[in-house]
Amino acid sequence: MADTSAIKEHMEVIGADGVHVGTVDHLDGDRIKLTKKDSGEGSHEGHHHYISLGLVADVEGDKVRLSANADVAVTFEEEA
């Protein structure tokens, strides 16, 4: 597992395919809380989503890379 202690506010979260998933708001226990601006559309818009730290493959500079492609990773997102 990656060194999740290196995850900081405003880092970009990307899938294994390099596609943008979200932006780190902060760590919340064993999850990454994403900013509201990346919350999606419709019923998903305007509230925070969370990604499990278990999906983090690596922390590279200012990016958090997940072990799943972006389109799969968003299916694992949790809502507040």
Automatic annotation (TrEMBL):
<protein>
    <recommendedName>
        <fullName>DUF2171 domain-containing protein</fullName>
    </recommendedName>
</protein>
<dbReference type="InterPro" id="IPR018684">
    <property type="entry name" value="DUF2171"/>
</dbReference>
<dbReference type="Pfam" id="PF09939">
    <property type="entry name" value="DUF2171"/>
</dbReference>
